[in-house]
Amino acid sequence: MSILSSIDLGTNTCLMLVCEGLPGKTGFRVIEDLATVVRLGQGVDLHRRFQPEAMQRTLSCLKHYSERLRAVGGDPTQTIAVATSGSRDAQNSPEFFETVEKQTGFRFQRISGDEEARYTHLGGLLDGMQPHLTTVIDIGGGSTEFKTSSGGMSVDMGSVRYTERYLKNNPVTDEEFWNCQQAIDSAILHSQLPRWRESLHEDNRLCAVAGTATTLAGWFLELEKFDAEKIDGLVLSRGDIHRQVEELKWRSIQERRSLAGIEEGRADVLLAGALILWRSMELLNFNQVIISTRGLRYGVLQMRRSNSE
User: Fold this and answer.
1) Contacts for 283-286: CB closer than 8 Å, 24+ residues apart
2) What is the pLDDT of residues 245-258, one digit of tens each?
3) Are residues 275 and 195 both part of a single domain?
4) Nearest C-alpha neighbor of 199 from the set 141, 131, 135, 292
5) pLDDT in tens, 60-93
6) Within-domain flag for 285
7) CATH code at 150?
């Protein structure tokens, strides 16, 4: 069976999935599922350009991924590699991805927010979830996607973007916290999300993917190391997320790092991500959220299956 691979390069994290077979098919087996905090979007919201140190971190990660992929018989040139919000905003992204292709073999496609939402919904669903009754929320570093099988949208609010804009002190001040919450509320309420939410079935459930959600789940479970089997399917209430927001608010970044389940590369931006999740649940009337470790990297491979059938 052939080796298939995909990469999801976001504003904060770079993920690579390597597998035999396609997700959802008999015989599907994950060989590698790697995640590295690279913070490629560092400073992009302010400067609209990738910064040299961020590009170096990301290139080093991708060189490592290329080596890992070749070691198990994969081909970097055949990898479905997609880049999201930060890469859409950075003016120098074409030059950067040209360098990446030359040095790693990975050829990246910058996808739109709508494409990101569609692929994330496809890939984020866990076994037994009904696509037409599930909304997937993907809180990224630069944007947040909301998607159901019938539609959805992307909003330019993300954990890195809003940390850089609003949460500058350590620990954050009350004024910074409230300014960030107000910005999130405004972004949600002044979008089409409330009207879109009203169109959904009353039994529609929220499923959260990506690093903010899985980190909050790992912290809730007090996991010493990442465990997808324990995280997948975990149900957290709106109150659970609110309590986590309140604790993150008064803790310093150093204190957050000491908590089980929170890795160093997420500690500084986790409050903004948790705020986005809590306010989304509050304003869009979702009482619970189901956590999934899957997402975009699964969705782009499943889309390849659909296109080839």
Assistant:
1) 283/185, 283/188, 283/189, 283/193, 283/194, 284/188, 284/193, 284/194, 284/197, 285/197, 286/135, 286/205, 286/206, 286/238
2) 999 999 999 999 99
3) yes
4) 135
5) 999 999 999 999 999 999 999 999 866 777 888 8
6) yes
7) 3.30.420.150
